[in-house]
Amino acid sequence: MGTAGWSYKDWKEHFYPEDLAEGDWLRFYAQYFNTVEVNVTYYTHVAQSMVEGWLRKTESNPDFKFIIKLHQAFTHKRTYTAEDVARVQATLDILLRSEKCLGILLQFPYSFPCTDQGMRFVRKITEELYSPNYFLEVRHKSWSGKNVSTLIDNENLSVCWIDQPQLGETIDWLPDKETEKLYLRLHGRNEKAWRESLQNFGKKQTYEEQSSRYNYLYSRGELIEFVQIIKNTFKQLKELIVIANNHPNGNAIMNAFELLEFLKGTVKIPETTDALMKKLQRRA
Q1: Alpha helices, DSSP H only, in the chain?
Q2: 217-232 pLDDT per residue, tens
Q3: In this predicted model, which residue has the larger pLDDT, 50 or 155?
Q4: Which of 268, 248, 212, 284 is nearest to 3 (CA)?
Q5: Of 20, 22, 158, 185, which residue is least crowded by CB atoms under 10 Å?
Q6: How far is CA 132 from each of CA 7, 106, 124, 177, rounded to the nearest angstrom?
Q7: 28-40 pLDDT per residue, tens
Q8: Is 4 exposed, middle or buried (0-12, 13-18, 19+ CB in 10 A)?
Q9: Which residues span the domain enclosing 272?
């Protein structure tokens, strides 16, 4: 259980103590969650020293592992080079040597339909990059009903189950019920903001405008629905990974704690986070 990223300034009032330096946010985060999706690797290739810093800051949690979000050159621009491959693999290798790599997320946009060419492209990436797991996020409904791991011919590839507003040709399906590994990504259900985001695609936007479509707090009822589907549908399930991407205003943190409570029964919540505690108590 974890979130997509950890470095959000608006989490100060909702999760991180006011006097905690930004450089210690990951260390604090790792006390409460056992995984995180690394967002920065989508935007840039990171230095070895940065990755080693992540390892130091999470060493107090022996179960903590990282999921690397694949660089946009592969998934959105689709014009990656041999240097891109080498730099992504260098990041993975540092985590692999420390046994802290859970896998790599291949997040493709809505504009990436299921075609023979598209599947060959995904297969090529999985052949050129070594990772213990490949998590494929596709958003176009043409991928629905396909046994993608078989088509890609990689038993370590899993297709993400994503929750987001159902607009246009957006995918709206559950993974194969026989899957042993389930990866759920929660993007929120802010349909109005999502529509506006699509209309403003390509335009210059502020960080707040870019993030607005993820500004959504799941109700306890919606979260319980996920839990029931997981328990009633995926009988062969051996591993569950849930990543909350509804990050504005600390919503992802709150929903992650609630899901941990529903799935495990007990949850460790930071006593220093008064705002989060008050939110949870109001919803109890």
Answers
A1: 25-29, 40-43, 48-57, 72-75, 82-97, 116-128, 148-152, 191-199, 207-211, 220-233, 251-264, 274-283
A2: 999 999 999 999 999 9
A3: 50
A4: 248
A5: 22
A6: 25, 13, 16, 22
A7: 999 999 999 999 9
A8: buried
A9: 2-283
Q: Which of 111, 213, 116, 222 is nearest to 170 (CA)?
A: 111
Q: Is the dihedral of CA 21, 217, 36, 49 positive or negative?
A: negative
Residue 116, token pair as written in the block: 């023979």
Q: How many domains does one find in the chain? A: 1
CB atoms within 10 A of CB 144: 13
Q: Which of 119, 88, 122, 83 is nearest to 106 (CA)?
A: 122
Residue with tokens 């809505």: 110
* CATH number of the CATH domain containing 229: 3.20.20.410
What is the C-alpha to C-alpha distance for residues 102 and 135, in angstroms, rounded to an integer?
10
Residue with structure tokens 């409904």? Answer: 141
- pTM over cut 0.85: yes
* Amino acid (one-letter) located at 170: T
CA count, 13 A, side-chain hemisphere, 89: 12
